[in-house]
Task: inverse folding
C-alpha cells in the first residue's frame, strides 16, 4: 500500500465515512480504473483496512543535482564547441551578453539536452524550429556535466548525425564503464513537475495562457496528479454506467414505439402485448422478455443494423461543395496574381531599412553606418526609405496571407473529401441498390485528399460532385427500401429486443451503482480541495514573499493565491489590490509587473525540496522591468541562491549592475560572439574576484586613513582566501557525490583559517601541521599572505597593502586550481 493510499484511508476513517457503502468504491478507485471496474463488476473484492495511527512525514528530498558545465556545439547561435563552466552548489551566476551573442543558446541547449524539447520553439513557426542547426558549423552536440549527490559527476549528452532534430543519440555517462539511458536517472516526471528552466517567452505566457494552464503548472508540484487521477477514475466509472443506463432507457423507449406502431393484421399476436407489458416504465421484466424472444426466429441483427447505418449516411452537401469550389478557385487566382514575388526578401529589406532609419533618428548621423558613405542618411532619404518600407511590408504581407489562405482552403476542403465509411464494404453483400456504384465513386472522390493545388482540387471536385452526390442518395434510399422489405411485424421487434437485452441487464446494475459513485465523488472532491489547500499554502506564502521583493514602487499588492475548481473549471485566483482596491491582475498590471508575478510563482515551484534539481536556469527575466524592479529581482535571485544554483542569462546590464550595487555575491560570465558563430565565454567576476577588487579599491583610496586601511584591507584579503578555500572544497566534494548539506556542515565546523586551508589543500582538516610546508613550496609570499590573512582585521598591518592584495590574489588562484 502506498503512502498516498494510507493517507486517504486515514481520512476516510477520521471523517467517519469508512462505514458508508461507497467507501469501498473509493478504495477500489485508488488502485485505478481496472480495479474499480473489476470491483463494480463483482470480479474483485475490496475490504477496508484496520485503522492505524497516522505518522506525519516530511517531504522526501531526493539526491540533488548541480550543473558543473555545459558544452554547446553547432547548436543555434553557437558554432565551434564552447563550454560554460559554472560553480556547482548554491549561488548566483549571471551570464551576460548582447542579443545575438549566443548566450540564450546555452539556456536552450541545457533545456534540450535534459528534456529533448524546448518550450520556446514549441510556440514558434516551423521556420523557427528549423533553424536549430548553426549555419557555420556542421557538427552538432550538447553536453551537460552534472554533479549528483551520492553519485558524483555524470554527463548527459545529445549528438546529431543528421539534419533531423529528432535524430540524435542520447547518452548518460557516470562513474560506471557503460553508458546509461536518460530514463535511468528517474527524472522524467521531475523535469515536467519541477521544471528548472524559465525562458522569457515562458515567463510572458505563464499568466497569459489562461487560469487552467497556470493551475496545471502549479498543481503538479503538489502531487495532486494522484488526486486528479482518482477523481477521473470515479467520474469515468460514473459516466460509463450512467451512459449504459441512458442508452438502454432510450432504446427501451424505441422498442415501445415499435410495439405501438406495428402493421395491421397483427392484433392476434399476444407476443406483442407481453412485450409491451414487460417494457412498461423503467422497471423492466427482463426474464419475461428473454423468454419471449425464444418463441420465434429472428433475422440476423447485424444485417439490420448495417442497413440502418446505411440509411444514416449523410447526403452530400452540394451547396457547401459548390461554395468550397469557388473558394478554391479564388485562392488559386490570388496565388497566381502574386506569383513571382519574394516575401522573405521584402521582409528582410524592410527590416534593414527600418534599422537604418532608427539609427539616423537616434544619432542624427548622416553617414551610412554600413558602408561609411558620407551624407548618405538625410531627411529625403529617410522619407523615401519610409515609403519603401511600407511598400515592402505590404508586399510581404500579401504573399504570406495568400499562402496562408491557400493552406486554409485546402484544409477546409478536406471536410468534404472524407474516405468512404468501412460500412460500405461491410454491407456489399446485402443487395442494396446503388451501393457498389456509390462506393466506387466515393473512393474516386476521396482521392482528392492528396491534391495540394487549389486549382487542381477545384477541378477534381467540380467534375465529380453531382454524380457522386446522386450515387450516395441512391444508396441511402436503396438501404431504406431494403430494410423495409426485410422487416415484418414481429421479427424486427424480436431482433431489437434480443440486441437490447444484454445492455439492459448491465444497465439495471449500473443504475444502482451510479448513486453510490456520486456519493464517493462528492467526498473525494471535498477531500481533494482540503489536501490541495494544505499543500499549496507554503508555495503561496513563498510566492507572496518573492512578489514583495519584486514589487518595489508598485501600487499592486498580491494577496491570496488560491487554486480553485477542478477539471474544466480549474483555475488560479490571484487576489490583487491596487492602492487597496481589489482588481483583476491581468487587467491592471503592466508587462513588467506581470513578468514579476510570473517569476514569483515560478521560483517557489522550482525550489521545492522534492525537486532533484538544485539548479534553476532563467533566460532574459529583466525585459519590461523598470530599474527599481530590477533591484528587487536581484534580491529575489540572491535569496533563491542561498539554497539553489541560480543561473541567469541576460542581455540587460541593469541586472549585473544591480547585483554589484547591492553587494550581492555573484559570479558573472561574459558571452561574446565573433564571425562564423565563434562564441567565447569569459568569467569576469566571482565572489573571490569581487573581494580582491574591493581590497584593491581601498588601497587606492587616497583619503582613507592608514590605520583604517591597515585593518580593513587584510579583512577583505582574508575573506577572499577563505572564499577560494570553500570553493575548492565544494567543487571537489560535490564532484565525488557528497551531499551539499554535509559539505556545508564540514565548512561550518572548520571555519577557522588553518583547518579551512588544510581542507582546501589536502581535503583533510586534520592536516593543519602540513599547511605551512605546503605553502612554503609556493614561496615566501604565500606564507606571508597566509599569516597576515589569518590575523585579518584584528591587528593593523604595517606592511605594503598592495603587495598583500597581490599575494592574496595569487594564493586564491592557486586554491582555485586545486579544485
Result:
Amino acid at each position: 500500500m502506498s503512502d498516498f493510499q494510507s493517507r486517504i484511508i486515514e481520512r476516510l476513517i477520521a471523517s467517519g465515512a469508512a462505514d458508508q457503502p461507497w467507501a469501498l468504491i473509493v478504495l477500489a478507485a485508488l488502485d485505478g480504473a481496472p480495479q474499480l471496474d473489476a470491483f463494480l463488476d463483482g470480479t474483485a473484492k475490496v475490504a477496508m483496512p484496520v485503522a492505524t495511527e497516522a505518522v506525519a512525514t516530511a517531504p522526501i528530498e531526493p539526491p540533488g543535482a548541480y550543473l558543473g558545465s555545459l558544452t554547446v556545439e553547432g547548436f543555434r547561435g553557437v558554432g565551434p564547441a564552447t563550454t560554460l563552466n559554472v560553480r556547482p552548489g548554491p549561488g548566483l551566476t549571471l551570464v551576460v551578453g548582447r542579443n545575438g551573442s549566443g548566450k540564450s543558446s546555452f539556456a536552450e541547449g541545457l533545456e534540450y539536452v535534459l528534456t529533448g524539447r524546448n518550450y520556446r520553439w514549441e510556440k514558434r513557426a516551423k521556420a523557427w524550429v528549423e533553424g536549430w542547426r548553426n549555419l557555420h558549423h556542421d557538427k552538432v552536440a550538447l553536453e551537460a556535466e552534472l554533479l549528483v549527490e551520492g553519485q558524483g559527476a555524470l554527463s548527459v549528452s545529445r549528438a546529431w548525425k543528421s539534419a533531423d532534430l529528432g535524430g540524435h543519440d542520447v547518452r548518460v555517462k557516470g562513474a560506471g564503464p557503460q553508458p546509461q539511458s536518460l530514463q535511468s536517472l528517474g527524472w522524467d516526471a521531475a523535469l515536467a513537475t519541477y521544471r528548472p528552466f524559465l525562458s522569457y517567452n515562458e515567463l510572458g505566457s505563464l499568466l497569459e495562457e489562461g487560469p487552467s494552464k497556470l493551475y496545471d503548472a502549479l498543481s503538479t508540484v503538489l502531487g495532486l496528479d494522484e488526486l486528479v487521477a482518482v477523481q477521473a477514475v470515479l467520474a469515468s466509472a460514473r459516466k460509463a454506467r450512467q451512459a449504459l443506463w441512458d442508452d438502454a432507457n432510450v432504446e427501451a423507449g424505441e422498442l415501445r414505439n415499435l410495439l405501438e406502431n406495428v402493421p395491421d393484421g397483427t392484433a392476434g399476436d399476444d407476443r406483442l402485448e407481453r412485450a409491451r407489458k414487460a417494457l412498461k416504465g423503467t422497471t423492466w421484466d427482463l426474464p419475461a422478455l428473454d423468454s419471449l424472444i425464444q418463441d420465434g426466429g429472428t433475422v440476423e441483427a447485424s444485417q439490420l443494423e448495417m442497413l440502418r447505418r446505411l440509411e444514416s449516411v449523410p447526403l452530400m452537401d452540394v451547396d457547401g461543395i459548390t461554395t468550397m469550389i469557388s473558394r478554391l478557385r479564388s485562392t488559386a487566382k490570388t496565388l497566381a496574381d502574386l506569383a513571382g514575388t519574394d516575401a522573405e526578401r521584402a521582409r528582410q529589406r524592410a527590416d534593414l531599412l527600418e534599422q537604418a532609419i532608427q539609427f539616423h533618428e537616434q544619432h542624427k548621423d548622416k553617414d551610412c553606418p554600413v558602408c561609411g558613405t558620407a551624407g548618405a542618411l538625410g531627411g529625403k532619404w529617410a522619407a523615401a526609405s519610409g515609403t519603401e518600407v511600407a511598400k515592402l511590408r505590404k508586399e510581404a504581407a500579401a504573399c504570406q496571407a495568400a499562402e496562408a489562405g491557400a493552406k486554409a482552403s485546402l484544409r477546409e476542403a478536406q471536410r468534404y473529401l472524407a474516405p468512404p465509411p468501412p460500412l460500405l464494404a461491410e454491407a456489399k453483400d446485402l443487395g442494396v441498390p446503388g451501393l457498389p456504384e456509390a462506393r466506387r465513386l466515393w473512393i474516386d472522390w476521396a482521392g482528392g485528399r492528396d491534391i495540394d493545388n487549389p486549382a487542381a482540387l477545384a477541378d477534381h471536385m467540380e467534375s465529380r460532385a453531382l454524380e457522386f452526390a446522386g450515387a450516395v442518395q441512391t444508396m441511402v434510399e436503396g438501404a431504406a427500401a431494403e430494410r423495409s422489405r426485410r422487416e415484418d411485424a414481429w421479427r424486427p421487434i424480436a431482433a431489437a429486443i434480443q440486441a437490447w437485452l444484454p445492455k439492459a441487464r448491465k444497465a439495471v446494475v449500473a443504475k444502482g451503482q451510479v448513486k453510490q459513485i456520486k456519493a464517493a465523488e462528492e467526498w473525494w472532491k471535498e477531500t481533494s480541495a482540503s489536501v490541495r489547500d494544505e499543500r499549496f499554502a507554503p508555495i503561496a506564502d513563498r510566492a507572496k514573499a518573492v512578489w514583495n521583493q519584486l514589487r518595489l514602487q508598485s501600487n499592486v499588492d498580491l494577496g491570496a493565491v488560491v487554486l480553485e475548481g477542478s477539471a474544466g473549471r480549474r483555475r488560479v485566483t490571484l487576489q490583487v489590490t491596487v492602492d487597496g482596491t481589489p482588481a483583476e491582475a491581468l487587467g491592471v498590471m503592466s508587462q513588467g509587473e506581470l513578468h514579476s508575478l510570473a517569476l514569483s510563482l515560478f521560483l517557489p515551484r522550482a525550489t521545492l525540496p522534492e525537486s532533484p534539481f538544485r539548479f534553476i536556469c532563467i533566460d532574459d527575466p529583466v525585459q519590461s522591468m523598470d530599474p527599481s524592479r530590477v533591484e528587487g529581482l536581484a534580491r529575489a535571485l540572491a535569496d533563491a541562491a542561498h539554497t539553489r544554483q541560480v543561473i541567469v542569462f541576460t542581455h540587460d546590464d541593469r541586472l549585473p549592475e544591480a547585483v554589484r550595487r547591492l553587494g550581492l555575491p555573484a559570479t558573472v560570465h561574459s558571452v561574446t560572439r565573433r564571425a562564423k558563430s565563434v562564441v567565447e565565454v569569459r568569467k569576469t567576476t566571482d565572489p573571490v574576484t569581487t573581494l580582491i577588487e574591493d581590497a584593491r579599491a581601498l588601497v587606492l583610496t587616497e583619503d582613507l586613513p592608514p590605520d583604517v586601511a591597515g585593518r580593513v584591507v587584510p579583512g577583505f584579503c582574508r575573506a577572499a582566501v577563505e572564499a577560494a578555500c570553500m570553493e575548492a572544497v565544494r567543487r571537489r566534494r560535490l564532484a565525488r557525490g557528497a551531499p551539499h548539506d554535509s559539505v556545508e556542515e564540514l565548512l561550518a565546523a572548520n571555519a577557522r583559517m588553518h583547518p579551512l586551508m588544510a581542507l582546501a589543500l589536502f581535503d583533510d582538516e586534520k592536516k593543519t601541521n602540513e599547511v605551512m610546508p605546503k605553502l612554503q613550496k609556493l614561496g615566501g609570499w604565500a606564507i606571508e599572505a597566509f599569516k597576515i590573512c589569518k590575523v585579518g582585521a584584528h591587528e593593523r598591518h604595517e606592511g605594503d597593502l598592495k603587495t598583500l592584495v597581490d599575494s592574496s590574489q595569487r594564493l586564491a588562484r592557486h586554491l582555485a586550481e586545486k579544485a
